[in-house]
TrEMBL record:
Pfam families: adh_short. Belongs to the short-chain dehydrogenases/reductases (SDR) family. This is Short-chain dehydrogenase/reductase family protein. GO terms for biological process: monocarboxylic acid metabolic process.
Amino acid sequence: MHDLSGKTAIVTGGLSGMGLAIATALAQAGASVGVGSRSVTGNDDPAHQDALKQIRASGQAVHACRLDVTDHASIDGFISTIKRTIGDIDIVVNAAGMTHEQPVCGHSDTLWNSIIETNLTGAFRMTRAVLPEMIANGFGRVINIGSTAASVGWADNPAYCASKAGLLGLTRCVALEGAASGVTCVMVSPTWVETDLMRNDVKEIVAREGKGRSIEQAMADITAENPQGRIIQPDEIAALVTFLCSDAARGLTMENIQVSGGSLW
């Protein structure tokens, strides 16, 4: 539906969860895709063969390499490699993220800094690395994967909420900076999405509760709390991101699009 042929996209955190679904959808739409992940050791890393096979099934050029968005040198090396192997970058999807269950009281500086550096500063650094060329070329799409946590508090996740609220501010500034040059910037903010990251977080919640609730019970409770009676799936987020990267969405910028199934959180 949304032809991205001839475009090159990079997706951070692109070998699992929402990032993987987004990278796959962009490739299916015709884009060449550069995938970055902290866990990658090489483009043919055996630990990620299934994920890479999924992205490459469309037949588009795909290159995966290690990327740590908290490290300047890693970002520079990643950008240089992608440009050299598959082309100038038209689209960046900042999907790398992390969280950890911890209340404000007792929240260490180390944990706070790690979450902010990954979720917010990492997205800033990635965007800063590609935005000048997008502006010069007269086209660009910057998609930041946010969260309903950007506008709704989440107990025991102060750094995560702060990072996503900050990401929304960054999104608006990038949108204004790129608007006159055909560059858009949008934040996509889901509620719970069924990924390994979600299950790991639910596991932490259950452990801290100490009530004997199983992970499956907790997942069922989250499902029941959603007005649609379900958990959002990664491919739903991927479909929205693909649309936002297309010419059909050129008038959409500076937005925070929430994907919640009617849930406030």
